[in-house]
């Protein structure tokens, strides 16, 4: 079993620990976070400040940036400098992932999610609980697909975009990078970069 180190100790990290426990492929060795002072051990897991990683030979461990915020995952990956091959792909045993799908290092696929044929998912993405990523999707790095989202066939999602809980994207649509799609939205047209869109059909939200 690979020894797993989770970076981040919040709610998202707890769900990832459950995935690691359920997978029989990983054992959680440590949870590190900038908010933890010093080092302690609970139930055989080390809880430590992020600087704990400096004392380790990273090639002996697998890592996961267990933080929900997409921009923060990108920043931490860049700051730590741990090679991408050391980041785990974590897939809950109840998730269904096509053999022809590709999933990048650092990505987590949560319980009951589905990733269908020939979809390509980037690095450090989150396919959250019961999300459906249909066939031939393209998802760049640092994307978060929230619980119960449906991405229909041949959807493309740009880097860092967050699709909110229960949203649906109809087939063939393209959503640019660093967008936020509101919970429950139905995306029926392409969406540009850095856009927040919500509603049915999804429309850009402009803040005054
Ligand atoms: C396990 C997990 O928890 S994973 C995390 C999943 N997280 C999510 O799904 C969150 C998704 N985020 C949202 O839906 C947010 O409401 C956003 C991003 C769409 C908008 O957030 P903000 O920018 O803070 O906008 P704000 O709350 O001020 O609302 C702006 C307007 O949009 C409306 N609005 C906000 N969210 C939505 C939505 N999902 N659908 C329709 N309209 C919405 C508001 O009613 C408001 O309308 P008004 O100007 O007429 O009063």
Automatic annotation (TrEMBL):
Highest taxon above the source species: Bacteria
Coiled-coil features, chain-numbered ranges: none
InterPro entries: AcTrfase_PglD-like (IPR020019), PglD_N (IPR041561), Trans_hexapeptide_repeat (IPR050179), Trimer_LpxA-like_sf (IPR011004)
CDD domains the UniProt entry points to: LbH_AT_putative (cd03360)
Domain PglD N-terminal: 3-79
Protein's name in the database: Acetyltransferase
Organism: Virgibacillus sediminis
């Amino acid at each position: 079993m690979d020894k797993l180190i989770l970076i981040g100790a919040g709610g998202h990290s707890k769900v990832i620990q459950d995935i690691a426990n359920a997978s029989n492929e990983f054992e959680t060795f440590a949870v590190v976070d900038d908010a933890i002072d010093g080092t302690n051990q609970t139930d055989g897991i080390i809880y430590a400040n992020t600087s704990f990683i400096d004392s380790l030979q990273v090639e002996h461990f697998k890592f996961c940036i267990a933080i929900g915020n997409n921009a923060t995952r990108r920043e931490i990956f860049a700051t730590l400098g741990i090679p991408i091959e050391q980041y785990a792909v974590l897939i809950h045993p109840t998730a269904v992932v096509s053999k022809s799908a590709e999933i990048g290092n650092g990505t987590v696929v949560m319980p009951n999610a589905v990733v269908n044929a020939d979809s390509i998912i980037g690095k450090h993405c989150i396919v959250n609980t019961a999300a459906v990523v249909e066939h031939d999707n393209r998802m760049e790095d640092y994307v978060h697909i929230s619980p119960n989202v449906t991405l229909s066939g041949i959807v493309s999602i740009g880097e860092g975009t967050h699709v909110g809980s229960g949203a649906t994207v109809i087939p063939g649509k393209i959503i640019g990078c660093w967008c936020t799609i509101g919970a429950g939205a139905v995306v029926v047209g392409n969406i540009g970069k850095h856009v927040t869109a919500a509603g049915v059909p999804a429309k850009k939200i402009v803040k005054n």
